[in-house]
């Protein structure tokens, strides 16, 4: 037991050093003395661990240019471009996004693929693995530390399967196990809203309370409460899809109840309402609705006004319950954010006095896909033991 404790301490110290070096690019690396000061570790410990990391290719030692007399100081730099994560975005039906990020959250590769012809999760992951192999061959110097997947659903912590998935192909599927087997890498699976919230937790370090509302194929909410992601006992924390904030006369085929908010806000449901029936090409129909709204088409404007009301009610509940500093809104819904804002904001003002008194900030995330990738990267990095 004692040796295990010693190894745990050593691993903690190694990660502390890597954490300090991770975003120190603007400082052209750090000396071992700098690292010791920032980590509160002894100089001897830092020196020994940096030498080990150098042997393993995790850091590089660079001689500083110096005009002074005496020993030329050296800086320690993290080999951040060498270590990468694989990000799979499966939150939209028929679409696979693959991104590779280095451990500084910089994108090395990003591309979307049409997978509408694939009918099973195993086929999708096998296809993703083949595309990844092509990417890896072109970047043979990279070391991959994990693969993460964004889904529009809940990763049940007890069963390790997906539930309440907007993309029904993945319902009840042990996706994490499938991904780990295919890629032979540590895997991570989470819903897109949680990943976005985790990303912003690192981006806005001073903010300890925020809510991320992601609306695309489904409606997801990620919550950072006092600096930690709110998951709940089973991983269902923040789940709002079937809360009764929608039209009380609209039947939900998923749960058998009426008035579920996801049926008013999810992109497939909005375009079905606009076209009068479910659409096979959801993104195509959505793009047409967005274009019609920009041209102030009467039917499109009316539907967006109604949608804004439902969105405002959901946001007011989230503000009242969580008292966040920020509410971020991301996903395809941001295509009409400007058209939604006036009525949405009015509803929030009317229903939630906290919004006016406490100055909760509503923020549009127009680059939520990048935010998802960053969230995956942060999640994998947190588990990495260099």
Largest sheet: 5 strands, mixed
DSSP, total strands: 14
Strand order of the largest sheet: 5-4-3-6-9
The H/E string reads HHHEEEEEHEEEHEHEEEHHHHEHHEH
Approximate helicity band: 40-55%
Would you identify the CATH architecture of the largest domain?
2-Layer Sandwich
Q: How far from one another are the termini?
A: 22 Å
CATH topology of the largest domain: Nucleotidyltransferase, domain 5
Report the CATH C-level class of the largest domain. Alpha Beta
Total of domains: 3
What name goes with the CATH superfamily of the largest domain? ATPase, nucleotide binding domain
**Rounded Rg:** 23 Å
How many H/I helices? Answer: 13
Structural class: alpha/beta
Structure notes:
Belongs to the ROK (NagC/XylR) family. The protein is of the alpha/beta class and 386 residues long. The chain has 3 domains: 73 residues, Arc Repressor Mutant, subunit A, CATH 1.10.10; 128 residues, Nucleotidyltransferase, domain 5 (2-Layer Sandwich), CATH 3.30.420; 162 residues, Nucleotidyltransferase, domain 5 (2-Layer Sandwich). Helices cover 44% and strands 19% of the residues. It has 13 helices and 14 strands. Strands 5-4-3-6-9 form a 5-stranded mixed beta sheet, sandwiched between helices. A 5-stranded mixed beta sheet has the order 12-11-10-13-14, with helices on both faces. Strands 1-2 form a two-stranded antiparallel ribbon. Helix 2 crosses helix 3. The protein is globular, with a radius of gyration of 23 Å. The two termini are 22 Å apart. The mean pLDDT is 91.
